[in-house]
């Protein structure tokens, strides 16, 4: 069951056909599976370095996000 999953997708392949067909360009950047129930809300911090997620498990998780090389 993937209902507690938070996924960060790379937007470059969405806006660039060249990146879309580039097999070396990652499509999914990160997957976090710590929630035990459906995730209902996600929000980025103003700095873009933190991501908060909340769900039916009544938990709010704050994730520290690092840039991947080349991203």
UniProtKB/TrEMBL annotation:
GO terms for cellular component: chromatin; HIR complex; nucleus. One of its GO terms (biological process) is DNA-templated transcription. Keywords: WD repeat. PROSITE patterns: WD_REPEATS_2 (PS50082), WD_REPEATS_REGION (PS50294). InterPro entries: HIR1-like, WD40/YVTN_repeat-like_dom_sf, WD40_repeat_dom_sf, WD40_rpt. The keyword Transcription does not apply. Gene3D superfamilies: YVTN repeat-like/Quinoprotein amine dehydrogenase (2.130.10.10). One of its GO terms (molecular function) is nucleosome binding. It comes from the Eukaryota. WD repeats lie at residues 32-65. This is Uncharacterized protein. The lineage of its organism: Eukaryota, Metazoa, Ecdysozoa, Arthropoda, Hexapoda.
